[in-house]
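look at this stuff:

>
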Amino acid sequence: MLVWFLRGRVKGRAVFPVASAVLLPGAIANLLDGITALRQPSLPAGPVSLAARNVSGVLAAFGYPLTGAALKLGNAFDFFSLWAAVLMAFGVAAAGDVPTRRALIGTLAAWVCFRLVVSVAVGGGA
């Protein structure tokens, strides 16, 4: 649908490789959660994020902690979801004959809208 919205033409054989590449960051996030869960002596009863998921947490894990307004902005964005959106943008450009700039802008705008709907209307999650 995003290719159609950005006025591209879908190449049918390229859809499944792009979809599988976009699912990779979520799989890596789940793998990191699994590794973190195995290293814990006991798990909490409620839902909890075991590994760092937001941009601030990932940068802090690599030794680059954010402070101030950058910390608030980094806490607002899920790193693995952003990574998947960037992969999707390049996939839309390749699989849909859409210029790369238009694909990046359109896909990231759609991603921001999706994140806003999820965080505001639904109350967090995904």
User: Anything to note?
Assistant: The chain has a mean pLDDT of 86. The chain is about 65% helix and 0% strand. The helical segments are 2-5, 15-39, 55-61, 69-76, 79-95, 100-122. Residues 45 and 68 are 32 Å apart (CA to CA).
